Fold:
Amino acid sequence: MKMSDRIGFDRFNWRRLAFCMATLFCAILISASLFSRPALLEIHVLDVGQGDAILVRSAEQILLIDAGTNMAEEYLNAFLHSMGIKRIDVFICTHPDEDHIGGADAVLYGLEVSCLYLPAIDSDDENFTKLLTAAVETGAVVRIAEVGERFSIGEAEVQFLGPLALDGETNNASIITRITCGNTSALLMGDAELAAETALLGAWSDDALDVDLLKLGHHGASTSTSAALLEAVTPRFAAISCGAGNDYGHPARSTIDALLARGIAVGRTDRDGRLIYCSDGTRFWRKK
Structure:
């Protein structure tokens, strides 16, 4: 090879190397900017023992779904105040069972609650009576959740997909909530069991049910989270709210096995404590 040809060859290689390096640098910058985008939505599945309480925050607006047991109300109020939360924009009580509404009256008395959603079911449970009394005394606007109803919480859209199976069972009367942020979404099942799941699958398309996060119904019991539901929902993440060493055996071994067999990342409040899920509208991830 002539010296002039060698110099031209070297220059060509250096130019190609410089181009490749510049391309790689740009790719790194783009990737870093994507992964550093702030969360537009946070979903906190709180560790309230054998019960449910879920905090949703987007653009400084707050949605609270359920309030755990009577025993958990002190923890719940302390947590809300530690987050600097003084006002709940929307409070959803999925169904009138003590492990979901035991702390609801304390939330209503302790914070400003703009709107309270309840399912279309009545109950003579004393905790439900306390909840209704607190709503009246604090002036919260009370609404019955209508299937298909939508509203916004900050950058997120909230839609009620249930209850659809009002068979007299409080669990199947649970308000089922879908939360969407950009191209990401979550489905929160309350205590919905098989009858409610079957009705849900019959009423909504797979596109409506396909989500990133599934908050399992009834604390991961064997009476919920059927194979048919998992096939429609195809979540990447599953969240289970349950108490350590609870007397019910929640979550069921069969439920955990079904999740793991599908490669779904499982979070459990009894082992992991509070579960935090985030979305920037494009990506959905669990915060460690």
